[in-house]
Task: structure prediction
Amino acid sequence: MSATHHHDRTTTTTVEYWESFYRERDQVWSGKPNFLLVREIEAVTPGTALDLGCAEGADAIWLAERGWRVTAVDVSETALARARANAARRELPSEIDWQRHDLDHTFPSGRFDLVTAQYLHSPLAVDGERTRILRRAAEAVAPGGLLLIVGHAEWPSWVLEPPADVHFPTTAEVRAGLALDPAEWRVEVEGLAEREQAGPEGQPGTRKDNILLIRRAERERK
Result:
């Protein structure tokens, strides 16, 4: 999930915000999987996967088409309904378990070979909510499994006067928030990736994203 327009924190709940966000348009996202997910996971042997903030389902569908057994989660029932419909059109309804969760309050059960959080930004997040969710995400990674966290590193190049009150966490800040035991976890990929992103009026531009791919040890410490 990712959004950057302003809101009133005092009167809007997380569910209300994201329902309104998705109901504004019949389709919000491109329908294509996130490019860093494809880059890092395309060659990984399929297993079980947990997609946090699955939105309209593109990442979950891409994983399922490659043999992953996917649990896909979002807070918006509107987004999930579109995701289910998109999966059905691809004849994948049984390959994906769609679940609605407000992740700071409820979290899917089980452990997974891959846990992916793509652009898990929310303008409503306060008091360390994202960090708490990502810690739960790490807990859900099975031994030998992967945790993939991708987030914006800065505003797109065409935003000339970015809001001063928005902070995009660095990979170092994400790692610090996770507080993972280095004896149990190994960083496999950490860095920045730049991609093209057009503005709302079609103006050309670029955007930089942070990527963090971490692998859990095959055996957990007792």
Observations:
- Residues 1-11 have pLDDT under 50 and may be disordered.
